[in-house]
Specification:
elongated
Amino acid sequence: MLNSTLILAMLMQVGPNPLAGGLPGDDLVRDRPPRAEAAASELNPTSAWLESCLDQLEEDPARAHTTAQIRRSETTGTDRVLANHCLGLAASELGLWDDARAAFAAARAETPEGEARTRARYAALAGNAALAGGDAAGAEGLLRLAEGEAQAAGSAPLQAIAATDRARALVALGRGEEALAPLDAATTAAPTRAEGWLLKATLLRRLDRLAEAQTAIERAASLVSGAAGIGPEIGLEAGVIAVLGGRDEAARQSWQSVIDLAPEHPATATARGYLAQLGPAGETAPAPAEETPPS
């Protein structure tokens, strides 16, 4: 379930799975809720009604869901778009992914065509809701639409977000090789976003292209510091790439850095498990066994 406070804090900015067989830490193969940073409303950000609905969302998402449905049925134009906006967020909070997808798709459809950036954001949210709901094919189409509209609007950060999410959808569909193209587009559009490089490294590693994966994870690592943001996930992935390349000591160092820098991060438990599998320095051990991500 989404954290409402996090959603509200990120509403006005753009920035930073039920699939078995992936390593914990493989963000490419983890299902996750729609991106809050794609939810910013540019139509009327000071709307008193929207502020009220978002306040209600934080305290009682079910009530916000009902309130937004009523508002949507009684309004048109911008007010209806904003009602769908809050409805989609409330549905996401409640795990009602079909409702969320429909609300975000409706918000996009009713946003004027000249507002390509806002339409792209709603398409991205609809795509992520589709992915969370298990419809990877539908998600891929919506995210492709979002990517194109973001590019038309000249929004490189939003284009990168949509592209990385489309890569996730393609991986979910078993089309890993095809997923490289949107990741290339994402890292070209937003070369300083570490997430794109992390996902690219993860996918390249899963495709057994370890030299390229190493280059990508080094680029990701250069864009973060310590335990900030996705730093622990980068350290975790760096260790996996290293051990698969026969560099056990480098893997130990990467996983130990995750433990030292972010002891409370979810990646730390996985790093400890990998270190245990690898064994003490001087011993040769098999690569960490892949585990099924928690549902």
